[in-house]
Amino acid sequence: MAVVVIPFAMGIFFANMVIAPVWSLLLATVVSLVGVIALTKWWQNIALFTMLFSVGALLHSLSYRDDITYNNPVEMLLTVESSSVVREGYTSAEARIEASADNSLSGCNVVVWGDSLTKFRAGDRLLLTTTIRPFRAERKEYAELMHHRGFIGSISVGSNTLYNYFPTEHESLHDRAVARLQGAMAEGDARAVVLAMTTGERSEISSELRQNYAASGASHLLAVSGLHIGIAFMLINFLLLPLVLLRYGNVWRSVGAVALIWLYVWLCGMSPSAVRAAIMFSLLQFSLSSMREYMSINILAGTAFIMLAFNSHLLFDISFQLSFIAVAGIVVWAVPLYRLCSTRFKAVNSFIGVMFVGIASTLATLPLVANSFSVVSLVGILINPVVILLANIVVLVGVVAMALPFTAIIAEYAAAWQNRVVEWAATLPYGHFTISLPEWAMWLIYGVLFVVTLLLWLLPRREKEPKIEDNL
């Protein structure tokens, strides 16, 4: 599957860099498809590569909008899709245009900026006449990021803006979970971390706390991803264990587990990292129930292909990139090293596993982090065993606390200790460095890592190949 997703992603990347006519990409797709059917051997492989490349480029080219009119007042009905996040002196929320006098705007996403008194909840609706502004050209990186996330621009509202406000009558599953946990814990950094790690709600994360997690290399803990979904996966399978006693119990257990995993991802806001993890764990659940071999690289590549086929712009989303690169590093580096260094003692093996996972994910994402955020944290490897242990407690108990709020105090206590460890690591001298890595250097590093990893994977296979003397 990896040989499929690579040319597909290359086509998306090409279409993002070069504006090619849609008809030319469509023609290339048809011609290469004919080649796949008619040709043989290497020519067929070349035609298949070209077809996948062309399909990726075609899908990405078709996703662009060039019919948006900016800075003209237009009446529109908005539905808020994410609750307002409070920044320094203002708030921001994400919204979708449900209806508009300009039909070309219907279905588009916008960022709603407001003053500190203007706050919305997911599901609220706004009817107003306003202008849509393009993202500022001087903030090119932010503008590109928001366009890749499907936003066409921004609008401003505030306490002095005239608009009709229709508050939502029903709380979303996400809002209910957040409110339930908020009521069970005292306001503070510990509660903010519990909310972020169990529900994906990061509105209470302070800038200082965010900087500490970034400097210590633990910022990935604040976004629901593979670690968090994996903990929920284990908890769900444990709770559904009695189903195996029934007829077709493994099937019912797998169906129930996959349904609950996706329910949890929905509760967390369907972020790219959470969706990626949910797809992988769903396929893992299927392989466990069918007793089939779980091929991590193929599953990871298949997950990437599915997500990019539905939304090619995810390829340029930093959370999507970090998520996949981290998992790829764990699969190709941490897993083989763990198998090589494992012992007879389970406790030692657990420690070794956590260390290798931390080292592999840190090294794999280090060039991308240095390019995107201009910071490199080395202390994250040191504190990884401790924060992973505390993160397991936070997520595991946090998920349980949604049903049993009185247990939230345990998650709050673990989060407080996690914050202490992170704060200590962030203040260590030479624990992190400010490095602005150019994009060409990032690609060069990943190219070298890819070649070296491929050679190391091929070496054991060559050793097992029979020698000529053995056949004499």
Based on helices, strands and strand pairing, what is the structural class?
Answer: alpha+beta
Q: Helix and strand string, N-terminal first?
A: HHHEEEEHEEHHHHHHHHHEHHEH
Distance between the termini: 38 Å
Rounded Rg: 24 Å
Provide the helix percentage.
55-70%
- Number of alpha- plus pi-helical segments: 16
Biggest beta sheet summary: 6 strands, mixed
Relative strand content: 5-15%
> What is the topology, as strand order, of the major beta sheet?
5-3-2-1-4-6
Average of pLDDT: 84
* Uncertain ranges: 462-472
Number of strands: 8
Morphology: globular
Any overview of this molecule?
By secondary structure, the chain is α+β, with helices and mostly antiparallel strands. It is 60% helix and 11% strand. It contains 16 helices and eight strands. It has helices at 2-17, 22-38, 41-62, 140-148, 173-184, 189-199, 207-215, 226-239, 249-267, 272-290, 296-310, 318-341, 346-373, 379-401, 408-426, 439-464; strands at 74-86, 90-100, 109-115, 125-130, 151-156, 164-166, 376-377, 432-433. The strands form two sheets. The chain has a six-stranded mixed beta sheet with strand order 5-3-2-1-4-6. A hairpin with a 3-residue loop joins strand 1 and strand 2 (90-100). Helix 8 crosses helix 14, helix 10 crosses helix 11 (296-310) and helix 11 (296-310) runs antiparallel to helix 12 (318-341). The two termini are 38 Å apart. Residues 462-472 have low confidence and may be disordered.
